[in-house]
Design brief:
mainly beta; 7-stranded mixed sheet; 4-stranded antiparallel sheet; 59% strand; globular
Length: 116
């Protein structure tokens, strides 16, 4: 089992920055990829960025060049968000995928609100 806790959300003006943190506990050695997803009101959850245990990264086109995902160890991942826009508003969820079983875990989410 893996538990994920996000932090770092908040209210920021357009053009500002935030850094989200996700801390995993439990069987962190079993984690392969970690990532961030977001869900805006009335929309489906969408991928923001992912990073594997080999530090390979993948970004949504909408955040490329503005967001940076990083991973400190097996169970800690950050999302640095710069030049935020109002359409970045949503609940941001941390995600972890186990290496052998591909079991997916989710955090409880943290709210990011960008005002224009």
């Amino acid at each position: 089992q893996v538990q994920l806790v996000e932090s770092g959300g908040g209210l920021v003006q357009a053009g500002g920055s935030l850094r989200l943190s996700c801390a995993a506990s439990g069987l962190t050695s079993s984690i392969n990829a970690m990532g961030w997803y977001r869900q805006a009101p009335g929309k489906q959850r969408e991928l923001v960025a992912t990073i594997t245990s080999l530090r390979q990264t993948n970004y949504a086109d909408s955040v490329m060049g503005r967001f940076t995902i990083s991973r400190v160890n097996a169970g800690t991942v950050y999302l640095q968000m710069n030049n935020l826009r109002p359409d970045d508003t949503g609940v941001y969820y941390c995600n972890a995928v186990q290496r052998l079983t591909s079991t997916t875990y989710w955090g409880q989410g943290t709210q990011v609100t960008v005002s224009s």
